[in-house]
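I am still getting used to backbone structure tokens and would like to learn alongside you. To get us started, please write out a protein record for me. Start from the sequence, derive the backbone structure tokens from it, and show both lines together. Once you have written the record down, we can walk along the chain together:
***
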Amino acid sequence: MQPPHKDIIQKSKQPQIIHPKYRTDIDGLRAIAVIAVVAFHAFPSWLKGGFIGVDIFFIISGYLISTIIFESLDKGTFSFSGFYTRRIKRIFPALIVVLIACLVIGWNILLADEYKQLGKHIAAGASFISNLTLWNEAGYFDSAADTKPLLHLWSLGIEEQFYIVWPLLLWLSWKCNFNFLLITILATITSFALNVYGVKNDPVATFYSPQTRFWELLSGSFLAWMTLYKKTLFFNIANKINNCIAQPIHRDILSHGELPASILSFIGLFILAYGFWKIDKNLIFPGEWALVPVIGTVFLLGAGAKGFINRTILSNKLVVWIGLISFPLYLWHWPLLSFARIVEGEEPSIRIRITAVILAFLLASLTYKVVERPIRFGKHGKLKTSLLIILMSLVGFSGYQVFIRNGIENRFQKMSMVDPETALALASNNCSVLFPKWAKLTDNPCRLQKQFGNTIAIIGDSHAGHLYVGMSESLGDKGGVADFAASCAAPYLDIASGTSEPNTTKMRGNAYRLINSAYEYIFNDSTIRTVILAHRPLCSYGDAKDIANPSITSANDALEDGMRRTFSALRKSHKNVIVLFDNPQLPFEPSACIQRPFRLANQGKKCSFPRSYFDSLEAYGNYKSLVNKVIKDFPEVHTLDLSETLCDDRNCYLVKNSQPLYLDRGHLNYNGSRYVAPYIMDSINLFN
């Protein structure tokens, strides 16, 4: 397609955006997408691939937006102000309502640090940069995904960033007489290539980055161009398929519509069904797997309103109604589920989750009828747009104020020790000078209390890192602590652990190199007399590899080999060695111990749990048995069990001396670090 002559624009005094003819089946496809997402979030074991519903939304958005832009530019009626006015009236009303509701609900039920994070996410959501904010937060100490009520706004950020870049690029292409199809294809291929490359090197960044997700929306743009200008060519694909497979298809099924369209719709539905069944969160995503929902959606959209699936299933009145409320339903469902998760301190019961989903449908319907439709349609469009911009700005400003005021402290008892940014900021420059690659290869800090003369080294994963505060304060001027923590790293030479999860490859893949370099430093520093090995056994249970002996396939055998190698090296360096057995893992979030204004089901505080729960965890028992087996050959190596100071014979405790001890289910907060430090120091003095 060649762009029209620019003089056409001058003939139109008031450019009008052209809108594609309404198709009920597109709202039906939206319904499929939102039902899949809601089902995945509320009942993840029922529909493990439901999250690809977001990808379906991406293609639909790219298709509709590009259809509008192509036709408007083609006829010389495109207007940036008209385009963005419609976007604002479409997106802002429901989003403003949900953000205000989250601000109010959060004030009444969240702890200060939780509310602070919500404030940041409200500001990010109002600015349409949620994906960038969440990307920046991603890390080992990041809050669990299901305790972020606005986590789902990352996809809205991607879409809005696309709405900024793509119309401008197409307009510039039109001005310069560039071919739209060529621009679309080049942009799609570039974004897809970045996606495939990035998902193998940094899956988190690839998931949230606009440049690695734009290809999905651009696939819809390509379809828009095809259906506008080459529809006959597009349907030739289906005609060729028809020659191969149409004979077995019963004529009654296809008698009411075009045969090619029906074939495309059947193929599209089959591909989407395969995606919902096959794809799950354990696969590296998006990557090549995202082609499944993209191709399936493109086929269904390309089939048009006459495709059998489109005119029967997707155009069903109930399905179309769900599609009409899909945007507010998407906005409402996750905050309701997330708030329920937060106040319960654990996964809510199925009754609570079903109630949350029903409530989401009711609120979505109400939002659509009372807020969205009256604002989107009718008179006073400019006034509505101006008021929406002002309201969104005020909501974003309110969220930012909550964030910078630390969640309006002292509303409730404060639980966490400090936010992750502050914890990482405590890392000493002494360590960054000696180990410049540390911060690049892991999200855990390396810290040296003194530049020279540290007497104790703690080495391992984040469960080594959380001991630093208490240990360094206990030593004071009598010595110093060198803290070497790498994400999920077993504290043994040439052992890689916790690397099987696709999304943690960047943080953990080279962690063993950091541990090796830390040991080299420890061996060569004669002032370091005691070395403490701290580790979360869940990281290496069934997931440990011996880099020095890759022929070893058993995780336990690899750990044992690493232990023997490490203990021998420490003995030759004349170090006192203590292997820590980890603090108990909690069966629920520590916030369950804090008294909130209300809970949905669980009443009262949960500040302890049966010791039998912790003792039954196989990873911890396996690790303890393995260490005890190996140290029979190394009598100079000692062990210390932190559960002895955090548990009695019957229970383990989240609170000691009226102070909460945990940051999350596994990590101690500053109170916990200070509580266990004297216990560790007494053992060091005893073993020396």
